[in-house]
Structures are given as C-alpha cells and as structure tokens.
Amino acid sequence: MLYLMRDACDLMLTPARIAAGAARNAYEHPLSPFTYMPSSRAVAASCELFERGTRSYAKPAFGLPASERVVWERPFCRVIAFGEPSTKPRMLIVAPMSGHYATLLRGTVSAFLDTHQVFITDWADAKQVPLAAGCFDLDDYIDYCMAMFEALGPDLHVMAVCQPSVPVLAAIARMEAEDHPLVPESAVLIGGPIDTRRSPTAVNRLPQERSIDWFRQHCTHPVPWPHAGYGRKVYPGFLQLAGFISMNLNRHQSAHWDMFNHLVRGDGDSAAKHREFYDEYLAVMDLTAEFYLQTIETVFIEHAMARGVMRHRGEPVDLSAIRRCALMAIEGEKDDITGIGQTRAALDLATNLSAEKKAYHLQMGAGHYGIFNGARFRAEIAPKIAAFMQKNADLLPRELTVGLADVTAPSPDAVQAEPFVAAALIASEALAQRGA
C-alpha cells in the first residue's frame, strides 16, 4: 500500500509540475514581458525548486570520455566495458547494490580509464525486473560474481566498493576452495563490512537492536502496477532516500535554500553544481527484499563471514582457502558507515594467504565517500591500488580462454535460479527513529 500511495502522489503532482515548468519558462524567456518584472528570478527559482523536489529522477548516464559496451548480462545485472578492447590490465569494479546506481562510481571509473581496461557492474532496478526472472538473494549475488569472474578472466583484477566486499570475497573463497583456474589475481576491498563487530557504527548497531522480522515488516513492500516488476517484494529506493534525507534534513534544507539564492543572483555555475549533485543523489533504485533481508541477517546480525560460519548453496565460505588471489583493504579514518578494522578483517581471516599478497591502507581525513571518490582518492588511493594490482599481476599470463571481443550476453533462459546495506540500514535507522 505504501508503494502504491507514493506512485499515486507522484501522478497527482504531474499537472502541478507541468504548470511550474511553464511558469518558469514564462519568467525566464527573454521574449516574455514577465522576465523583466522585479520578482521574476524569485518566481522562476521557486518553480524550479518545486519541480525538482517533486519529480522522480531517471537513471543518470556515466558521461565519460569512453565508449560503453555491455559484455555480460543477466536479469539483475549487466557488465559495462569502457573503451574498446585493449591489452591494458583488466579491472572489474563491483558497484554497491545500495539503492543508488553504478554511476555513483563515475569518478572511480574515471581514475583508471588511462591505465586499465575498466568494467563495472550495472545492477538492475528490482522494480523493472519481471517476477518471471525469479528471485535474487545474497547467494545469487555470489553466483553472479563467480560468473563474471569466469567471463572476464583470466588475469582479472577486482575492486569491491562497500557492500559487495562480502559477496566478492565469498565468491573468491569458493573459487579458491575448488581450485578454479579463473580466480581473480587480486581483489581490492574498499570500506566493506567484513566484520561489523569491529569499531561498530550506528549503522552496525541497529540490526542488533531490531529483529529480522522488523526489517521485513517495515522495510519491504510489493511493487505496484504498472511497473515491470509488479508483485515483486522490494526494499524501495524512495524509502531509503527518505531515511537519508531525514538524517541530514538541515543540510539538505540549507543546500536548497542556497540553490534558490544562487538562481535569484544569477549564479549559474553554483546552481549547475547543485543540479549535478542532486540529479545523482535523488536517482534511486529498488532492491529485492530477499537480498536486503538475507544480507542484513548474514552480515550485520549473525556476522557469519567473520565467525567462519557463512555458507553458500550449502557449502562453507572459508576465507582460509584463499591462497592465490592477493587482497588489499582500504579504510577511511572518518568513515562513519564502515568503522576502522571492519574491512581489514578480511586480511586476518585469509590465514593461508602469504603476507606478500596482503596490503592495507588507512586514508587519513577521509570519510566513507572519500575512499572511493574525490581528490584524495585520485591523488593518494588510486595510485596505491594501481601499484598493488601491478605487483600482483601474473608475470606469465595464462592463455586467454575468453576474448573480450567474444564475450556475449547470455539469454535470460540460460540463467539458473543477487558511503548498499550501509545505505539501507541508514534509512532504516532514520525511519525507526521517526516511529516507523
């Protein structure tokens, strides 16, 4: 019912948005007499803020100076390659399935375009995936990771940003346990919740205070008609976004008041930066309920990977099986989503991986977002990642079994029956505080 009410409100506001857009044009167009009234800029600014504050935002484009190709695809994810096939080292960036789109890592991709053949996971909006495609949970996520490693390997390097650190590490452990020849050469884990018992944050404490049934009751809802995923249970992106905004309400109010003043003063550059940020920030996607709930239970309530009891399809996920894939953990000094030590736990759990294949970096002064994007990332973290991958590159490359030009997207019929969780829990916490 909540999802249906939200969609109904969106439809009811459509005429008002159209009227606001028309009024804005009337008070901005150089041929309109209204443009030259004393209050014209204030009226136009008010109309723009109303229209932007009530509309649904579409999925942003990467907009990078490189061509994009889909080289692997299944119902809940596709892999995008940037640029033409090359001999540069291959890097797969596993983007967080966190309510925001993979374009949130635009800056992360950009930092490696000159030195690597970059791929990124582009997760699907769950409300757009028909029920006929089946379910998608944490086990499916791990299956997807292993399938992508196989399709893009050999000699593949992987970077997991935040939430995917757990499934990526689990996939590597399972491949190592089976002596799979296409296990990645290295994996970089950035701000990942491997062991949330270490330096727990507010995000980590909430699941300890609420039962999994509470999350199921308050945070998951069926997708209404006419979305393609009609009937699917999801954790709605708009619900998560509401939680985000509630936790930093004053900040967002100030940002929009500043936007209004920029428009009134005619400060187009500042207004453009505001639009660019919020076009990305307000564009959200739904997560499947089974993935959301299983991840909360496995990672944040049971600490299954950290305790060595995590299982995938009935098989143990044993990080001591990792012997070939080099691991690097990156954390931020001021990360209030993933506390210090939570990602480094992966290095401690990989007991049979030699010290030469382990690396750790604590970025001083950086918060959660700063360890995978921004000036510090480009200047200090990205060079360390590139050096780590180069150090652990196979000196005698294995013969390619799958050429990039030959990678094709399988049909859905071939698929057998996937500062995310951090973001999802932030929203849940905000809603809990407001008596949800």
From TrEMBL:
SUPFAM superfamilies: alpha/beta-Hydrolases
Domain PHB de-polymerase C-terminal: 191-392
Domain of life: Bacteria
Protein's UniProt name: Esterase
Annotated source species: Methylobacterium oxalidis
